[in-house]
Amino acid sequence: MHFPVRRIARIGLLASLLGGLAACDKNDYTTWNCILGVDGAKVTMVLSRSLMTLDPPQVLAINPSSKNESDLRFCGSLGHDSFFDVRCPADTQAAIVRFTPGSGALRLGTQIMQCTVL
To answer: Is residue 84 within 8 Å of residue 74, measured between CB atoms?
Structure first.
């Protein structure tokens, strides 16, 4: 059976579109283990899409009223640093969390943690 070139091109385009739509629902995430300062308290951080989740959530120096009190929103990046907060401030650098993925440095307010990816 001989297929014309146009029909083959249409089938290829349709397959590409369907594959792209299936990939849109994929939820990529990265888990990090973080150690807090001198006392060595361990915190787990998960980056999932544009959210950062910390466990235990008590490490945050803030008390958000939402039920997902450990979820922080991505506020933007500047250079190598990414900024997260419950509500993003107008000045991105004023966000409660500053994370540098390349070095694993995580700053929560005045606390500094060292994180390693799992």
So the answer is: yes
Q: Residue 74 in contact with residue 51, Cβ under 8 Å?
A: yes
Q: Decide: residue 51, CB within 10 A, 0-12 exposed, 13-18 middle, 19+ buried.
A: middle
Closest CA to 70 of 88, 47, 94: 47
DSSP assignments along 84-104, one per residue: EESS--SSGGGSSEEEETTTT
**What H or E segment, with its residue span, contains residue 14?**
helix 5-24
Per-residue pLDDT of the chain in tens (118 residues, 90 and over written 9): 555 666 665 665 545 544 544 445 456 789 999 998 777 889 999 999 899 999 887 766 544 444 455 689 999 999 999 999 999 999 999 999 999 999 999 998 888 999 999 8
